[in-house]
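Quick one - first record:
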Amino acid sequence: MNKKHTLTLFTAALLLAACNPTHTRTYSADDGSVTATCRWQGDDSTAAQWQFTGKDGKPLVQPCDSIAVSERGLDGHPMTVTFFQGNRQQWRQYYSTMLPRAEGTLVDGQREGRWVFYFANGNIQCESSYHQGRENGTYRVLRENGAPYYIGRYRDGQRTGTWEIYDEQGNLIGKQEYGD
């Protein structure tokens, strides 16, 4: 999927606020890679439901009540986009190249589930899991070349078990033990 078309589509979708709240509006990227559909349940435009789907018809993000662009690049493209659904927010941040920089979910303002941060080349930099705002589960930090830097686990925000440290080629060079 072309990130430039995706972000342009997100920007266009923001303009849907002016559409008739009793109708469904659908917009697609020129290449068909992304489709945005907006539906209102009555006359209140704040009750809109947004759905973003890929070429295959599968959702790109969960359906949302609204979206917000909180940061724009020099070229005007969205750099930080938040999708709202009730108390849940899907947060996405992009580099100026339109590649993802970071993505994750907030529930009641706290990190929840999988969070991923990326290098500018598109490779994963850090991948972690959260529960109620605290690290919980595997925590992986990678080098820009994709080799692991260190890998460990968190339980309720505390390091636990064996953490492994790797050299620049991805060879294990050390371990650190943390109490359970």
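second record:
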Amino acid sequence: MTTSSDAPQARDTQPIVAGATPEQRDPTAWPPEVLDPIQRVLDHSRQKAGQAVRDTFDHRERVMTALEFVEFWNGSRLKAMATQGTNGPHVAPVHAEFVSGRLRSTIYENAVRRRDLRRNPSVALTTWGANGAAAIVYGIAREVPESSRETRPGATGRSRRTVALEIEVTRIYCMKPRPVE
């Protein structure tokens, strides 16, 4: 399993959360009271899931603890984030990670998904890995005040800006990879 400390070097040059220390990004360094709320969401999500979700994600040998989930999530470079627009859903690849127990992401200031979030802050994110490892996270996204910052230029060469999002996690479905035989 890849951990945040194994992440590619490029990730460290443009962190999702400006100023976050390696310890804040590493769930093995977090005290139990930081992981406990994530574990409660995992447990509650499994208990309330419908039959199809349980059949997919509730294989005993593939259930993740909060620590395993955050290590998997933070070790995955890209996630897909969906928002709900007035004419339907919008989905795009994003960087999102847990920092000190809170899910953070960024979004371009001029992105259609930013406009979506102003009308409806509900989001869904997903990522996956080798041998069937997967995670789906649902939550409520809120912009972090005063978080606008310049980021690398786009394909046109024009400068771009992002704003930070903090996502209140409401549901998590995840599973470890299938055992390799």
